[in-house]
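Supplementary Methods. Inverse-folding protocol.

Structures were first reduced to a discrete structure-token string of length 93. This string, shown here, constituted the complete conditioning input.
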């Protein structure tokens, strides 16, 4: 069975309405995009987000790092400190 674009969009809207959720976000709609570039003072989570090549990853604690499947295993830099992955510890599903 091959569905065209319109029925696929209808199915997508149906499922989005079927499973509603609350979403929070920040939208910068004016200016040059230079506002809201630092984390709030009472939010410790931002310091756990690091760079993995041109992508990012988050340190979950206890030597666990989470990245997207397309990012892959390797070193993660938090602040100015690089942390190398241990050989044989990469997991993907």
């Amino acid at each position: 069975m091959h569905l065209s674009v319109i029925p696929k969009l209808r199915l997508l809207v149906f499922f989005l309405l079927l499973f509603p959720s609350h979403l929070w976000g920040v939208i910068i709609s004016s200016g040059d995009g230079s506002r809201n570039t630092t984390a709030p003072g009472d939010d410790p989570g931002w310091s756990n987000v690091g760079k993995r090549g041109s992508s990012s990853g988050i340190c979950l604690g206890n030597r666990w790092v989470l990245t997207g499947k397309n990012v892959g295993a390797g070193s993660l830099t938090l602040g100015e400190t690089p942390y190398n992955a241990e050989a044989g510890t990469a997991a993907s599903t």
